[in-house]
Amino acid sequence: MLGTTVMIPSALVPLMGGSYHDKAIVIQHLLFASGWNTILQTFCGTRLPVVMGGSYAYYIPVLYIIGDSSLQQISDPHERFLQTMQAIQGALIVASIIPIFLGFSKIWGIFSRFFSPLGMAPVVGLAGLGLYNRGFPAVGNCVEIGIPMLLIVIVLSQYLKHIRPVADIPIFERFPILICVTIIWVYSHILTSAGAYKNAPDTTQDSCRTDRAHIISSAPWFRAPYPGQWGPPTFHPGHIFAMMSAVLVSMIESTAAYKAASRLAIATPPPAYVLSRGIGWQGLGILSDALIGTGTASTVLVENVGLLGLTKVGSRRVVEVSAGFMIFFSFLGKFGALFASIPFPIFAGLYCVLFGIVGSVGLSFLQFTNMNSMRNLFITGISLFLGISVPQYFNEFSLFSRHNLPFHTHAGWFNAFFNTIFSSPPTVGLIVAVVLDNTLEVEKSKKDRGMPWWAKFRTFRGDNRNEEFYSLPFNLNRCCPTT
Description:
Elements: H1 2-16, H2 20-43, E1 52-54, H3 59-66, H4 69-72, H5 77-95, H6 97-104, H7 107-111, H8 117-129, H9 136-139, H10 143-159, H11 171-174, H12 176-193, H13 202-208, H14 213-218, H15 237-264, H16 272-292, E2 298-300, H17 302-311, H18 316-331, H19 333-339, H20 344-364, H21 374-395, H22 412-421, H23 425-437, H24 451-455, H25 465-470
Helix pairs in contact: 1-2, 1-3, 2-16, 2-18, 3-15, 3-22, 5-15, 5-16, 6-16, 8-15, 8-20, 8-21, 8-23, 10-12, 10-20, 15-17, 15-22, 17-20, 21-23
């Protein structure tokens, strides 16, 4: 998850007017918020072993706020950074009400009654496959690092997973990420130190070099994140409305990730009540992101869902301990800046494997449906195709050119809202799949849609294993009845 944690502030903070010091601090804040929100989600939310982290779903609304004319008129870069961050915080604070309300009122669980294995297959599949642009296209920016990373991950995790050189411990199956990142990181540092990129183009140097001295020197040794450090949040109706679209997208993407995580962790599909509870706590996590000032907000990280399948480690305790490490390192700025020196093609090589696993988990839901039905073939095919094709169309346009975006009315908030919605593959997939699945020959196709298998997991009491997987600790279910 360090890839997302570093890349989002690195892209957005300079556009706000922030310095290297500001970027290092925002990375610390996002790492802290990721750890805190992960503990909330595994302890009180869905209880699935998922990791929360910064989401690209907020990219377009944040860019809209950054481009606001009232903020662009501020001549002092640091003051513009502070006021932009305050505007983002205010928009997130209000927008977080949506998942908090939909989650804790259990409306999101009621809406999930329209989900079937057929409808969820393309949505979960697109949660992984829809992120293809963060895979090999980023590997190609530095092939001498990205391709070895991709190949070594496959070799260690698949071909050598049965080799146990130490005390009968499956080292290569459990720790392929740690081993591969260390090897390729050292290799990339040797290339940098040897001057391999001295005369390379700027884009190649940005992707390949490990010497990020400006980030490390700018980062404080110790700094504790706390609410309100950027100043009091500001509230603008247009900013809030634009941010609501990102919150809706992150809810859909997280729902798909919950479904995938439950299968990879060998748990029952999360009942409607558990989905609502998870979305409600995700809303509280977005609120904490806003108060701390991370420049974005949290969602379930798809790459860590794929990691469940790669390592076969589905323990929530492992994830909670990992979240503790996130919080610990967030206080030590130099360590976070050191991690920021990892070239992104290393992460991209991992993403090729991890996102692919999540995509295949989505397609595995089709085993509970009748794929000899032309109705089902039509819904699956058009949902997958449009889920990839429509966001690709929207992402081809310049995010800064109001006149070139597909939605380019005079209302910037309106443009940001709909451009965010249709730039998300799982969201487009859900709109197409769920609408078609619930309007085309519904009564005739219950068995073909996989509803007999799916329906028994809708309620908390529908399967005896639900209590083992999803009950809250310390008998807290008395306070949150599983209705």
